[in-house]
Amino acid sequence: NAKSKFGEIVKDKISDENNYTVAFNVDGNAETISYFDNEGELLSMSKNKYNSDGRLIELSGYNQEGDLDYQHIYEYEGERVIKYVSKYYWDDTTDIYEVTNEWNGEYLISVKSTRNGELQSVAKYSKWDKNGAEWIEYDGNGDEKGRSEIVYDDNGYIKKYNTQTSNVEIERNDKSLPVYIKGARPDSGTGFILSEEYKDEIFYIEY
Prior knowledge:
Number of helices: 1
Number of strands: 17
Low-confidence stretches: 1-16
Largest sheet: 15 strands, antiparallel
Radius of gyration: 21 Å
Order of helices and strands: HEEEEEEEEEEEEEEEEE
């Protein structure tokens, strides 16, 4: 059962809405997070591993029975993520998603995505700087899927986000909070949520 696989479990109610405990390592990084139902029974657990620089290199999620559900693995070159692998363990199969990032100096120039070793997509960047990014995405056969663009304002916040499925425009006040959003739904703070439902919507926000 969960206790025999995970060892002794000590529960502290940290939040009235979410019952979970967090164990930190000596460097102050979250090492184990345990989630419980309202009766105090363990629901799931995640465990993190870090490299010598304190960067997350592996996140493993376990179900109520203590069986491994998923893993996220990160590979770095300096401070940059050059490879990200997600593994999902089903009853009789394992799905493996891999994303490989290629950099040229400070800038990302391509992102390749595979599933179970089969190429799914490649994004090639023609621009990536403080003003924004432009890229073309190709499918697994090398056919172009569409062109995309992100434009940042002087404070580094997105003011345009145009892809083959989204055309978002954002205007912000002097505190960088959005006051006008077209093509997306406002989220908390400075963010927004993309959805087919909101692609033709316009929101005016007052504070």
